[in-house]
Amino acid sequence: MATTAAKVKPAVMGYLPNDQPPFGKMILLGLQHVITMFPATVLCAMLMGFHVSTVLTITGLGTITALIGSKLSMGKFIPLYYGSSFSYIAAVTAVTHAQFGVPVSDHLLSIVQAGFLATGIINVVVGLLIRLVGGKEAVDVVLPPIVTGSVACTIGIGLGAAALGMASGSSSGIATGSNTWWVVALITLVATICYSVYLQGKGFIGLLPILLGGITGYIIAIPFGLVNLAFTSAVIRAPHITFPVFNDPMTISIIFSVGVMCIATIPESTAHLYQISLYVDHLAEQKGVQKVGLSRYIGLNLMLDGLDDIINGIFGSTAGTNYGENNSLMVITRNYSGPVLIAAGAIAILLGFIGPLADLVTSIPTAVSGGLAIYLYGVIGMQGIALMMSEKVNLFDPRQLAIGAVILIVGIGGNIGYPGGFIPFPILTGIFPSGLPAIATGAVFGILLNLIFVFFKPAVEREAIGEKAATD
Question: Is the pTM of this model over 0.85?
Answer without folding.
Answer: no
